[in-house]
Amino acid sequence: MTIRELGKCEDPTIIRGWFRLVENTIAKYGIRSDDIWNFNETGFMMGMIEPGTVVTSSHRQGRPKQVQPGNREWITVIEAINAEGQSIPPFIIGAGKDHLATWYEECDLPGDWVIALSENGWPNNNLGLEWLKHFDRATAKRTNSRYRLLILDGHESHHSVEFEGYCKENKIITLCMPAHASHLLQPLDVGCFGPLKKAYGREIEHLIRCFITHITKTEFFPAFHTARQAAITESNIKGATDSNASRRGHNTIDPLDCKDPKDSARGPVAL
């Protein structure tokens, strides 16, 4: 991100405008706080404890060597949380083409987690739609409002025709955060992903002490499971969403701003 982009995303006018849009959308569609969901994704290099420290494939004991490449395979984890401290099961995207039986037989993962594959471990339009269906399954029965609000980033996979069509059919309103502002506005970035990365690092350090020096998906999944239990907690989620809500609370609702969603390029999808 350039200095100009950073300055723009922290522009108070943009931030106030975002919170105003959120409040107006909530008011227009009568959405309860427990039906407002923040979506975000984060990435893991499986052999990375922290930036600059890589688990190597060497069998030598001692601290991992920063100069040697470990397993830098990328994993994307998609999470969604609400202000009541709730989360839905994670949607995990790994690099590859084939699922291995050992992931399901040996890793002891919850049955409602989703493991998907793409060529490079990144989301794409098809996986974006599959995540949306996963979100719908996880939240439809607990919904208390007529509509659900889903707050997204600007990734293209969240703006495909199929994605927006599914939202319309299932009464899911979407709002897209201002570009490059998730570090300020996204509760998952603010209060959850940091603890998650630290907890994952601790799990990998434990594996190193057990002389497991090359991390594959078979090691990643249980390590991530333990880290997630420690980090994606009700208290962490509420702390992050409360911080966001306190900033949003300084904005007032103007009924005149409750315009039709199609009038705003990045406003809510009309349902």
Automatic annotation (TrEMBL):
One of its GO terms (cellular component) is nucleus. InterPro entries: CenT-Element_Derived (IPR050863), DDE_SF_endonuclease_dom (IPR004875). It holds the Pfam family DDE_1. Residues 238-271 are annotated as: Disordered. Residues 256-265 have a biased composition (Basic and acidic residues). It comes from the Eukaryota. Residues 72-239 form the DDE-1 domain. One of its GO terms (molecular function) is DNA binding. This is Tigger transposable element-derived protein 6.
